[in-house]
Amino acid sequence: MTTPCPVWFLAFTRQRSRLADIIIQLEKAGLDLHAQRPHDGAGGAGIVFLDAQAPLPEVEESLAEVRRTPEANVLAVSVGPLPTPSTWALLRSGAADVFSWFDVHNPVEIITSRLRYWQELDARVADLQQRLVGRSQRWRDTLRQVVDMALSNCQVLITGESGTGKELVAKEIHRFDPRPGKRDCVVVDCTNLIPGLSGSELFGHEKGAFTNAISTRDGAVALADEGTLFLDELGELPLALQAEFLRALQEGTYKRVGSNTWRQAHFRLVSATNRDLLAEVHKGAFRQDLYYRVSGWTCHLPPLRERQEDIVPLAEHFFQQQHGIQQPVDRQVYDFLLLRDYPGNVRELQQLITRIASKHQGEGPITIGDIPRSDWPDFAQLSAPAPASDELEAGVTHLLHQGLGLKEIKDQVTEVAKEVAIRHESGNLQLAALRLRCSERILQMHRREEPKERLRLD
Ligand SMILES: Nc1ncnc2c1ncn2[C@@H]1O[C@H](COP(=O)(O)OP(=O)(O)OP(=O)(O)O)[C@@H](O)[C@H]1O
């Protein structure tokens, strides 16, 4: 290994001298092995050594413990005769890879290359998280899959609702693609393919092939040669072109429109869709053979509503990276962002942050006052009905008869509004403050005050 690789290990074997010998060989190969129990916070990469006599319940329990650290990578290695197939099955469900030391050629190489790969994967995921922001477990798992796919050099289909980041992921797959000397990533949005000209856009055309073909032109397939072709909204690819495209994908050959000459282009295809492509196949709108060709490895990007934990880091990212705002952001702004729905996913959140950032003036923190009025939810629709105006009138009349002036009446109504908002938010002052568009401190003060005689609305 190029740099020492820290690896924890667990041993479930009595064959101590064999194990010691194996550990020496692995340390010579550059592994920095530490005997550690999983609950010591062992994440990262680890090896479970065992043999056919290993106490299975204990092994199972330890693996379950390890799995609680989501990014843990585990290799199970038998140091003696092969355990039974059912033991392997159990290990497989808890460990990423299993093999027997004495049954493979060069086990040191297998282990070190596997660990090197995991180390690289972790480093790349950390790097990717700078651009594909999110800290939820769901998102981190997705990023691991993205890096794994990118390094594999296979065709990838990215699915997910609009605005979940499909195009961003496609570009990152190209960035991490390890092909030596790879060329550009060419993007084609299939919704923009002009009927009649779509063949030319993909395959190019010869001069004079159709009325406006004043010169010979390369299409996207030629431009993506030795690079990546990203077909966005693949479900919109015209049926008439699908067979020709399949040939270009499988055999690397195509003809320009108006030409009889076969040309060659070898590209990696990454495609994306927010449609259910299999349903399109069943409807006859998408070729089954093309579907199976493009969907070898599918990566589904979860909608924002299934990863609420990512809303705040995404908002911070957009404030700082896109708008250069370094000032603090009031917690109430984040509360507001968390209360909302985002049918347009990350794109919708990004656009909202742009509106808030452009309303914000000066050097102070970003506050709820910077949220444009048009972005406030219609609380009237969300909450219980407001008191009818005649009830309000009756309450005010009562206060008037008691001889209260305008200021006192206003104060009373304000206090009632605070009380009602706090009650409707089940005592959550943050949410109540958000509704009233006032600071949480004002509500805390209200809580501390002795209740005076208040306006009654019922
Ligand atoms: N995890 C993320 N981190 C940072 N920015 C993101 C993330 N996900 C999406 N974005 C941003 O959100 C916007 C929408 O992303 P993108 O265009 O990749 O989505 P999409 O799924 O391809 O949408 P559509 O299906 O509508 O084409 C882009 O500006 C992108 O930069």
UniProtKB/TrEMBL annotation:
InterPro entries found in the cross-reference section: AAA+_ATPase, AAA_lid_NorR, P-loop_NTPase, Sigma_54_int, Sigma_54_int_dom_ATP-bd_1, Sigma_54_int_dom_ATP-bd_2
GO molecular function, one term: ATP binding
Keyword ATP-binding on entry: yes
Keyword Zinc among UniProt keywords: no
Domain Sigma-54 factor interaction positions: 132-358
Keywords (A to Z) from UniProt: ATP-binding, Nucleotide-binding
PROSITE patterns from the UniProt entry: SIGMA54_INTERACT_1 (PS00675), SIGMA54_INTERACT_2 (PS00676), SIGMA54_INTERACT_4 (PS50045)
Domain of life: Bacteria
SMART domains on file: AAA
Gene Ontology biological-process entries: regulation of DNA-templated transcription
Protein name: Sigma-54-dependent Fis family transcriptional regulator
